[in-house]
UniProtKB/TrEMBL annotation:
Keywords: Cell junction, Cell membrane, Membrane, Tight junction, Transmembrane, Transmembrane helix. Pfam families: PMP22_Claudin. It comes from Xenopus laevis (African clawed frog). It is a multi-pass membrane protein. It is found in: Cell junction, Tight junction; Cell membrane. The chain crosses the membrane at residues 81-101, 122-144, 176-202. GO terms for cellular component: bicellular tight junction; plasma membrane. One of its GO terms (molecular function) is structural molecule activity. Belongs to the claudin family. InterPro entries: Claudin, Claudin18, Claudin_CS, PMP22/EMP/MP20/Claudin. This is Claudin 18 L homeolog. Residues 238-260 are annotated as: Disordered. Its main location: other. It comes from the Eukaryota.
Amino acid sequence: MSVTMCQTMGFLVSALGFAGIIAATALDPWSTQDLYDNPVTAVFQYQGLWKSCVQQSSGFTECRPYYTILGLPAMFQAVRALMIVGIVLGAIGLLVAIFSLKCIRIGNMEDSAKANITLTSGIMFILAGLCSIIGVSVFANMLITNFWMTTANMYTGGAISGMGGMGGLQTLQTRYTFGAALFVGWVAGGLTLIGGVMMCIACRGLMPEESNYKAVSYHVSTKTPGYKTSAYEDKSKKSIYNESRRSEDGKSYPSKYDYV
């Protein structure tokens, strides 16, 4: 896969996942009423991050927002915060990724700058996907815990359930199970995470070769200048035999070597 194709596919997948995160956060059916023991009911309830709704058999739906913040469970508020942070990071990553696309030329922007921007957007998408997956998983864990606690209370006595039921008789309590928004959040977070990884992979291909800071090895030369040692010659002694003795008038006297 070419660098341009990898970057474009990562951008599109991340954008699709980001749209899914927004949709999952805004959707109401995060938890829906469990109809296993009561499939025929006149009222159907479901809850979201921002409001709870009641749907009647006639089709009329009434939703009521949560008017309190401090009265909500701490884990519920943490899920809200994670989804909002995911949306903010995804929006920043999407905005940055538009300028990093190789098919879009902006002024005299170099490839190294585009590579850095691509890496930044990829990291933003990865963090946004993780926030969405973690937030949805925490909410799902809350649902599972409440579901089994409610199930245990339904088949226990009134002393435990607190609803005046008799021991061994089923009391009427509403159980909630996974809603459609949870699956949308999981899929959207996964897509955003995959798109961010693809953007990070495309970053290496956009980096020019000269900007890949490769280590330069310096080899110390082992060749040292050779010093040739020779026997020391005493020039002073040699000059004794080469120089002949001269008289005061400039004439040289014969030496013993002249007769050899």
